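Continuing the series of single-chain predictions for the mutant panel. This is the parent chain; the variants come on the following pages.
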Amino acid sequence: MLEAAASDVGVRERVVRALGGAGMIAVRNVPGLEYLRSVLLPQARTLALMPDLDRKSVLKENLLGSDVPLKRKDRLVSSFVAQLPVSRSEIDRTPDQLVLKTGELFRHLGYRLIDVGVRVARVCDTALPGLQLEKTILGSQTAKGRLIHYHSECERLPRPDPAQRELSGSEFWQQWHYDYGVLTVLTAPVYINASGSVGQSHSSLVAMDSWTGSVTAVNIPDGSVLVQVGEAAQIFSGGKLRATAHCVVKPQLDPEASRETFVVFLQPAWDKALSCQVALEDGDETGSGDNRISVIPPLETRWKKGCTFAEFSKQTTGQYYGSKGIQSNKT
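Parent structure:
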């Protein structure tokens, strides 16, 4: 599809219409996806449940870090991260299915997701004159890869009290939020039961349509990745591309299931100024609309015309998760 979009105006229009409406598209036929996904994603659970010292050694060996406090026994999420070069020279390397370690699997899958994101950005640039998403992504030089384990109820210590779970809003693995970069590319998740075997799938990713306010469970088709618009792309496009509010909910009827996924965040360089890159008719530089979800800080309070991505990122993370943030101690 993305290859066809280079020469087919109709395909380009469909892609941009989807990214300007639902704010996401599924892309299939990604080389090596299913092998890399099937081998890497279960390793998120293995890493998350390791003793601290063992995990520290494995992460160091595989050049991975974390962006969550892994010593907290009651954490909802364990996350393992690395910065990945966006250079295309890395993408064409074919994985050897016999010798790859966790870090190598992480990087090979990351390169493929980066490639998908860059191709989608190129389609958007062609369809919306003046937009420079591909240049913006490549200008950042790196993208953040994130291997994520969402803990089952039986893995957390102390065990959550069912009576308190409903009151605290902890039916969420991750509360409602917008991604705030350019594009987010993610695999279909894998669910693992208490015995360590791959279990049945659940519809845990939930998104809200920015135009209608309707809420829908998002199921990523087999063999596909999902590409989501971030708020930076919404700003650059003057609202012609739309970020989508989304959350991750726990499967209430399967509390022993954990969720594993892999995500790449494509972002601008930290010093990149955030302002509209395309011609607008109505003068709206964000297309932000109304704010329907009370736990999401409005875009207008986090973004000021011409601010850098670093400034926007600081405001966004602070207003979500800082000591006085809307979602402080809730995620």
